[in-house]
Design brief:
Helix content is about 75%, strand content about 0%. The protein is mainly α. A hairpin with a 3-residue loop joins β1 and β2.
Length: about 500
């Protein structure tokens, strides 16, 4: 392994080293503050190390990993989310009687799995990264073992995640049996060379469908979404925040890389026309179903965590629009749209879950996720309410927020590829979402003088304000970030 390859995966090496350091620290001295600061140092060091790897963009690190500009952007988003989650977890866990050192170890394991997944270019690395991510999340979901809901959610996530991983692995096996390759890029070459073997194309078709089903579970796309509201509801607030951001962003990134690197998007003539048109149609059906079902089910929720769970189903459905690319000229816009939308989705989601996390207590049987507890919040604390309003409006795609620019990217991608059915579903789904997002906002404006205060620490306020300002600034002045997104997205495989 050359020094260039080592340099390419240096951020992941740093994370691994800090995980070992965490375990040694726990063995020597169990300290809540020490493990917290060590975790912050780990994420900060990992983010700083990316300045060292800029020269290694478009580098193949062994056959397992490929580091391009899109991977750089995704990893930056993942580590940013990890930094916010770490900052807010300290206050949440501080109320507990025990010293929760293991929580931070699991968090770094999740980040390690997610960042490895974002640079994966091979089925072996994809499967190992997903398992590292999923198993760590199972432990985090059931971390507060005195909560019955957390234990139930953890058990449900474990069983269903294991099933999805089995389906995913079976799909990889079918694709390998047909193509003889597990690397994304070489799969496309092998399938093109094997095009005359039309009689065996069913094996590749079945493999792609099974692979998509396994990933759809991780993204909670319809019809593999049933676990999502229960797991979000039962998980501690910082863990639900991790599920909604780190997990979904990394899994969608690897789906996008597989889709484009293996040329699944091309509608061509010949032996592969069947599988390519089949996959495009399956993606379209899943996207439309996720947009509509996710938003419709969110209408009936009074629990914010469950509402955000169904909302995330819809947002992942929106993102599937970028896969509906029918020519290479539209690929660049698809990369840009995906990266920008994932970033603005993460910003808004972090705001909502940050507020829930910082107004909840780990010792209580449930978090502050019932919207009746938010009644009159605007009159009690205008700052807190304003940050939440900005987040919900961004999720709804209202103008002057970053979410609107993200939706604009998706609309442009749909129009460029004549995906009119997906575009209609996007507009209808966004219109439905306005109802339940505005309903939460109206509840915050309703008067309820008897409601108790929801105090936040100085760090919590700073985080909420910082995230809300970014939502507004990137909505009003999108060029501040869109140029960087475009430059990063320009660098992809090939």
């Amino acid at each position: 392994m050359s020094w260039l390859e080592i340099q390419t995966i240096m951020p992941q090496i740093i994370l691994s080293a800090f995980i070992v350091a965490q375990l040694l620290l726990i063995a020597i001295n169990r300290s809540r503050k020490a493990i917290f600061y060590l975790t912050l140092l780990a994420i900060a060091s990992c983010l700083t190390s990316y300045s060292m790897v800029l020269d290694t963009i478009n580098t193949q690190a062994t056959i397992l990993f490929y580091f391009d500009g899109f991977s750089l952007g995704i990893n930056a988003i993942l580590l940013f989310c990890g930094l916010i989650i770490t900052l807010l977890s300290y206050r949440y866990l501080k109320s507990a009687l025990e010293v929760h050192d293991e929580f931070y170890v699991l968090l770094l394991l999740v980040l390690l799995g997610a960042t490895l997944l974002a640079i994966s270019n091979h089925f072996a690395s994809v499967f190992l990264s997903i398992e590292l991510l999923s198993l760590s999340l199972v432990a985090m979901v059931g971390y507060l073992r005195r909560r019955q809901q957390s234990l139930e959610a953890s058990f449900k996530y474990l069983i269903l995640s294991a099933t999805a991983s089995s389906i995913l692995l079976l799909g990889m096996a079918f694709i390998y049996a047909y193509s003889g390759e597990m690397s994304f890029y070489f799969i496309s070459q092998k399938t093109a060379a094997a095009a005359p073997q039309v009689g065996h194309i069913w094996m590749f078709s079945a493999g792609c469908c099974l692979l998509l089903a396994g990933i759809a579970f991780k993204l909670s796309l319809v019809p593999f979404h049933y676990w999502t509201p229960d797991v979000y509801h039962g998980a501690p607030a910082p863990v639900a925040m991790t599920l909604a951001t780190v997990s979904k962003i990394s899994v969608f990134a690897v789906l996008l890389k597989f889709w484009f690197f293996s040329n699944q998007y091309i509608i061509d003539t010949g032996a592969e026309q069947h599988i390519e048109s089949l996959m495009i149609n399956i993606i379209a059906v899943i996207a439309i179903a996720s947009m509509l079902v996710g938003n419709l089910l969110a209408l009936f929720q009074s629990n914010i965590k469950r509402l955000m769970a169904y909302s995330s189903i819809a947002h992942m459905g929106y993102l599937l629009i970028v896969l509906y690319v029918q020519n290479q000229s539209s690929m660049q816009l698809a990369w840009e749209s995906a990266l920008f939308y994932l970033f603005v989705y993460a910003l808004a989601t972090l705001v909502v879950f940050s507020f829930i996390s910082q107004t909840s207590n780990a010792q209580h049987p449930s978090d502050n996720d019932n919207w009746h507890n938010w009644q009159g919040l605007f009159w009690r604390n205008r700052l807190q309410a304003s940050t939440l309003i900005a987040a919900f409006l961004s999720l709804a795609g209202v103008p002057l927020t970053a979410g609107f620019i993200g939706k604009f990217y998706l609309v442009a991608t749909a129009v460029d590829n004549h995906a009119w059915a997906l575009l209609i579903a996007l507009v209808v789904g966004s219109s439905i979402s306005l109802f339940y997002y505005l309903k939460v906002i109206f509840i915050m404006f309703s008067k309820r003088p008897s409601q108790h205060e929801l105090p936040l620490s100085g760090i919590s306020h700073a985080v909420l304000i910082f995230l809300a300002i970014n939502i507004i600034v990137f909505g009003v002045l999108p060029d501040l970030i869109s140029e960087h997104v475009r430059l990063v997205a320009l660098s992809h495989f090939g």
